[in-house]
């Protein structure tokens, strides 16, 4: 579903598109859950640009003072004292529907408003309620991007209208589209969407001129990604990627908040999450405690609850014990990424840590135990993604021809075919940009149109995958089943945006669509697709065999049933009864779940109708000869 934004002009000034935009510098932007950065390549080296307060980091926080937005550090200072007018961690909301966000809504101190239905009856985009007004996650993200744009313009003393923006590798199509739209609203022409781990490896490899196989373990504020890359002679090739777009440093804060809420309930008999200011204070105190424990063995957690004060001392060991189950959720994606890349852990030459939470010793120890080697902590975990985005921007600007970035699509893409099966055209971890074509046909006589149903996922059944788009190719010629030739083309650009075209090769009739998925795609659905494909591999293969057996048997059954009157003309009653019994047997097996029995019954029906087929062919030949003789008599 296309993204719809209304009444934004009062908040975000629009920058007109002009030729001079193409001479402006291209910046790299890391739009993060907790913090955001903007960088540029200068004298061949990437550097993060400083904000007006001298900081390299712009907190991804927006506060509304009299409906006017304040972004960054000033907004972060208002997170507790003016929680009702302040929004943060908005990246977790990008490109997601209301139903998708129910699981995390209780962890946020601001209200997520149910959307109104669109004219098409689809779920609309969700809105965040702030101080009596409502804003979409795209609007909030656009304000952060606008602040980064202003930061770059102040540092470079020129207009900035073009950017490369990074996203988690496992962001789905809706989330990527939402990010691109936010950039456009901020007055930026988004030239490329780059996966965060890929950008990090670009900065890492540029600095060290290394070659080899690298795992990038990227644990950010709200997302986790792992990518396996091959570096060779300036080529950065992504072999596989996996992740969890609902897992990050916020979840480590969450384990502290959970303990505090339980203890406050016992001590004071109140629910600390009811009041938005208290909720915001708990989250801020938890983040401060986590950061303190990255350097100390103890940290004091203190929050005012009305007239009372809740206070406790956290030990490092206590925090790490609660953090390990959260980190354990990254194990599966890491192992599956290695499996998809066809590599063993021992074949890796390096493991690079990215993201602020990777400063924690417990994270570093976990990664070491997982990969069997000390992770590389030499890169700046907060800045390396922005630096990589700047390098990609420099490549697009034509200033750097020494490097080539080859990324992949994270989930398979395909079409629904007869019997409720998904036919994969582009397998997951295919290098992008890419194009794939496949020819299909009809299953019913005299079809005048075919439905094109675009799917995303790893399962055999359509219902187990995610529907991305549907459209109809009309105007087919009236032909018997199996005769039309319909060519379907999938084209994925460098940003991972999909376009689908269907063409009738007989008539040239063509229909195309740019796939813009609805916001109903949950992160858990995306993450569970690969997991479910592993867990249900055997059942999926069996189901495909069953559907294919039915697809082979049903045309045979239809043809024989249509020729039963002829059988009664040509064959003795006992042979007709045998054929009728075989027909009923195949009908019964088609309603069951055994592919072997269906194929056996179909083969038997073929066998008992051989004589009938021979007689029908002979009758056809006789008729042709008769027609030919008649023609000769009429036209001597």
> What gap, in angstroms, lies between the N and C termini?
68 Å
Average the pLDDT over all residues and give the rounded result. 81
How many strand elements? 28
Share of helix, binned: 25-40%
Assign the structural class, choosing from mainly alpha, mainly beta, alpha/beta, alpha+beta, or little secondary structure: alpha+beta
Sheet with the most strands? Answer: 6 strands, mixed
Tell me which oligomeric state these chains represent: single chain
Estimate the strand proportion.
25-35%
Uncertain parts: 1-21, 118-122, 517-526
How many helices in DSSP terms? 18
Shape: elongated
Radius of gyration: 30 Å
Short summary:
The protein is built from 18 helices and 28 strands. By secondary structure, the chain is of the alpha+beta class.
Structural summary, described in words:
It is a single chain. Helix 6 (196-208) packs across helix 12 and helix 7 (249-268) crosses helix 9. Strands 1, 2, 3, 4, 11 and 12 form a six-stranded mixed beta sheet that branches. The model is unreliable at 1-21, 118-122 and 517-526 (pLDDT under 50). Strand 9 and strand 10 (133-135) form a beta hairpin. With 636 residues, the protein is an alpha+beta fold.
């Amino acid at each position: 579903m296309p993204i719809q934004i209304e009444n934004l002009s009062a908040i975000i000034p629009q920058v007109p598109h002009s030729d001079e935009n193409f001479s402006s510098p291209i910046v790299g932007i890391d739009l993060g859950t907790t913090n955001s950065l903007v960088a540029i390549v200068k004298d061949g080296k990437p550097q993060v640009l400083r904000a007006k307060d001298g900081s390299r980091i712009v907190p991804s926080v927006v506060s509304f003072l009299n409906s006017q937005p304040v972004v960054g550090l000033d907004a972060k200072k208002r997170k507790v004292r003016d929680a009702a007018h302040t929004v943060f961690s908005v990246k977790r909301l990008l490109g997601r529907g209301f139903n998708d966000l129910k699981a995390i809504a209780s962890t946020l101190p601001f209200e997520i408003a149910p959307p109104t239905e669109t004219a098409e009856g689809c779920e609309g985009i969700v809105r965040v309620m702030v101080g009596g007004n409502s804003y979409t996650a795209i609007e909030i993200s656009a304000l952060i991007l606008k602040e980064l744009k202003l930061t770059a313009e102040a540092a470079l003393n020129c207009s900035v209208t073009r950017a490369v923006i990074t996203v988690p590798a496992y962001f789905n199509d809706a989330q990527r589209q939402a990010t691109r739209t936010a950039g456009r609203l901020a007055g930026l022409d988004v030239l490329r969407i780059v996966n965060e781990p890929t950008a990090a490896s670009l900065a890492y490899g540029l600095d060290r001129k290394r070659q080899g196989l690298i795992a990038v373990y990227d644990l950010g504020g709200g997302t986790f990604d792992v990518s396996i890359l091959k570096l060779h002679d300036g080529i950065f090739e992504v072999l596989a990627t996996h992740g969890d777009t609902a897992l990050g440093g916020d979840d480590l804060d969450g384990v502290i908040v959970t303990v505090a809420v339980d203890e406050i309930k016992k001590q004071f008999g109140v629910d600390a999450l009811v009041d938005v200011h208290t909720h915001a204070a708990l989250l801020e105190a938890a983040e401060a405690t986590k950061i303190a424990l990255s350097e100390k063995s103890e940290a004091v957690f203190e929050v005012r609850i009305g007239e009372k004060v809740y206070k406790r001392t956290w030990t490092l060991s206590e925090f790490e014990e609660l953090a390990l189950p959260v980190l354990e959720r990254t194990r599966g994606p890491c192992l599956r990424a290695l499996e998809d890349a066809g590599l063993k852990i021992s074949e890796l030459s390096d493991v690079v840590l990215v993201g602020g939470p990777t400063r924690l010793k417990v994270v570093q120890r976990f990664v070491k135990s997982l990969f069997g080697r000390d992770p590389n902590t030499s890169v700046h975990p907060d800045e390396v993604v922005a630096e990589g985005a700047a390098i990609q921007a420099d490549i697009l600007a034509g200033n750097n021809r020494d490097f080539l970035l080859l990324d992949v699509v994270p989930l398979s893409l395909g079409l629904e075919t007869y019997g409720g099966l998904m036919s994969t055209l582009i397998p997951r971890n295919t290098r992008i940009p890419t194009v794939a074509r496949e020819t299909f046909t009809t299953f019913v006589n005299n079809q005048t149109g075919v439905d094109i149903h675009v799917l995303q996922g790893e399962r055999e059944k359509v219902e187990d995958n995610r529907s991305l788009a549907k459209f109809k190719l009309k105007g087919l010629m009236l032909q018997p089943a199996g005769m039309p030739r319909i060519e379907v083309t999938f084209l994925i650009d460098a940003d991972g945006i999909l376009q689908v075209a269907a063409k009738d090769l007989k008539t040239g009739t063509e229909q195309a669509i740019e796939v813009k998925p609805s916001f109903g795609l949950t992160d858990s659905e995306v993450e569970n697709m690969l997991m479910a494909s592993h867990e249900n591999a055997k059942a999926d293969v069996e189901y495909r065999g069953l559907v294919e057996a039915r697809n082979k048997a049903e045309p045979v059954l239809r043809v024989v049933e249509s020729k039963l009157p002829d059988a009664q003309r040509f064959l003795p009653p006992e042979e007709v009864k045998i054929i009728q019994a075989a027909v009923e047997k195949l009908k019964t097996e088609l309603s069951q779940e055994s592919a072997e029995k269906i194929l056996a019954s179909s083969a038997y029906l073929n066998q008992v109708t051989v004589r009938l087929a021979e007689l029908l062919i002979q009758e056809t030949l006789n008729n042709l000869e008769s027609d030919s003789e008649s023609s000769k008599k009429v036209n001597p």
